[in-house]
Amino acid sequence: GSIGAATLCYGLGSQLTAVDPSSGKVQWRRYDLASGSEIFSDDEFVLTLAPGESTLHLYRASDGTKIGTRPVPEGAINSNLLRENGDWNRFFPVIKKTETTFQFSLYDPVEEETVWQFDAPLGTLWSSVQRSNLAFLDPDHTLTIVEGLTGQPLLKKKIPVEEEMESFAILTRPGQWIVLPGKGIPQQFVFSYPSLITRTIEKTVDGTVVAIDRMSGKVEWSHTVEDQKTITQLPTAWPILFFGNNSSKGLRGLILNRITGKEIMNEEWEINRNWIHWQASIQPLKIRIGYGLKTIGLDCVEPLTEKELDEAK
Questions:
Q1: CA 70, 71, 74: angle at the middle one, nearest 5?
Q2: What is the pTM of this model?
Q3: Which of 65, 85, 194, 229 is the most exposed place for a label (fewest CB within 10 A)?
Q4: CA–CA distance from 189 to each of 180, 196, 197, 312 (Å)?
Q5: Which pLDDT score, from 0 to 100, does residue 292 have?
């Protein structure tokens, strides 16, 4: 579940447990959780959804008392992966389409009412931004970013993209939004592993990558990336973007300067191992990216400023 100011709720087997996120002290525990349930929560309520079911079980967050059940709204996006790691506490994103329109809304299953909604032409795509915000890209490539829990607009900008997109993702970086055009839905455990215990969300990038200044809304640069994969959960302070994928020879890799969009490296290797990994140290920032058995080392000579460190948190 979500981490609130007063409650963190999680499931383990048939146990549903709430703890104080500050102290780790158990607040309450139940033993009737269906194994594999999704958990949605805030400091007021906890909702659980068992695999394959369409009924939410509703509990009071303060003491775990069961209040009742609620129906899953039609068109709701329940899966964490399909939400692209987005988190809206107890609220559910809901998508409805007609022959001409696309409607995205945030729905409160406790009160059984819509909190806000966004209407756009059919063919509009959506993506989560920095977990709780949302982005929409309509068919004429107008990008709209809104505050996730209120729907308040943060940006509306037509971006310099010509090709049709199947999907897209937004990376939030210090002072920037990076738009990644993609193919298909995000994948877990498919290609890249920063460590043996970290689950990564990976996106296939294919098209024009665009960097936008978060303060002015101006396009800073654009760069074409053809059929490469990237990890969307990399450290936000990194001054690079890196991509990789299998090729006919073995592996190919691309590293871009995030500030300028210029290529730092664009190579292909005959390697019989197709994994990619990374590691880094800070102050000064040193990044090591492994493409199969080949390691690329990047030493960022200038240390991060206090402002950059704060923005990266």
A1: 145
A2: 0.85
A3: 65
A4: 20, 10, 11, 25
A5: 73
